[in-house]
Design brief:
heterodimer; A: about 100 residues; mainly beta; Immunoglobulin-like; 7 strands; about 0% helix; B: about 170 residues; alpha+beta; six-stranded mixed beta sheet; globular
């Protein structure tokens, strides 16, 4: 199965800019389906970014984060060719991770 | 293990041995799969469940940080004046405050006020962009933890079509 995570990390000077897009329904628990049944909440809870054995960014998300969530942040110290690991886990215990290379 | 000279017993033993070896191989495979990632994975037990249940800014901040925020002009909250689609509202926060350790975003009129909370370790820039859902027109609050104190910036976003269904 293809990864749910797409990430682009670009090093420029001493700063690495990270943009990520994760495929996830992010169901809030307030929306009804076509039969009028509530779609239960299903959303990512934690997203973690690691570089060089150190966590560089952690996101805690509630159901108010949009479907297929987008995220952008920057950190110092990353170099071209370094590995950046992205992992997420949702409220049903589903998880995914990806190791990307910094460009 | 002593081998029995009795042939049928031997065959039985071989089968048992095979099962044991197979079982160990299975364990070994599972173990190596878990170890192949040198990093830790996102841990759901860290998720601040209680903060996400709160309805007001004060209660969210008390739950998340144990203190209240004061307004600051050193936080730039970039959000649209009018969001046509409340399901996807692009919101970005940057701050020039020193020693930033956390940024969170609240949509006060949503069923739960807290939308997202971010941890900013040392070496990470005090800036984040994301996309949030908004049920209706609401104040959006960006909270920044700087040097152990909380600061906030607020902006009202008008929503034409709500993003929480219904």
């Amino acid at each position: 199965m293809a990864s749910t995570i797409r990430v682009r990390a670009i090093a420029s000077g001493d700063t690495t800019e990270v943009q990520s897009l994760i495929q996830h329904p992010m169901d809030s628990g307030f929306v009804k389906d076509s039969k009028g049944q509530i779609i239960p909440p299903h959303h990512i809870e934690v997203v973690q970014f690691e570089h060089g054995g150190k966590t560089v960014f952690t996101a805690y998300w509630g159901p108010a984060v949009s479907k297929d969530p987008y995220l952008k942040f920057s950190f110092k110290g990353g170099k071209k060719g370094d590995e950046l690991k992205v992992s997420w886990v949702d409220n049903k215990g589903t998880s995914d991770s990806l190791v990307a290379k910094i460009n | 293990m002593t081998e029995s000279p009795d042939a049928p017993d031997r065959a039985r033993r071989m089968i048992l041995k095979g099962a044991v070896v197979g079982g160990l191989a299975g364990l070994g495979f599972a173990g190596s799969a878990a170890l192949s990632t040198a990093y830790a994975n996102a841990d759901a037990s860290q998720w601040p469940a209680n903060a996400f249940k709160q309805k007001t800014e004060a209660d969210v901040l008390k739950e998340l940080y144990g203190k209240a925020a004061t307004a600051s002009d050193k936080i730039n909250l970039d959000a649209p004046e009018i969001a046509e689609n409340g399901a996807v509202v692009a919101i970005a926060v940057t701050s020039t405050l020193p020693k930033v350790t956390a940024i969170s975003l609240l949509v006060l009129e949503n069923p739960s006020a807290l939308a997202a909370a971010y941890k900013i370790p040392e070496g990470t820039v005090a800036a984040v962009s994301n996309r949030l859902k908004m049920a209706k027109t609401s104040k959006v609050v960006a909270v920044v933890e700087s040097d152990g104190k909380l600061y906030s910036a607020t902006k009202e976003v008008k929503v034409t079509v709500g993003g929480c269904g219904g």
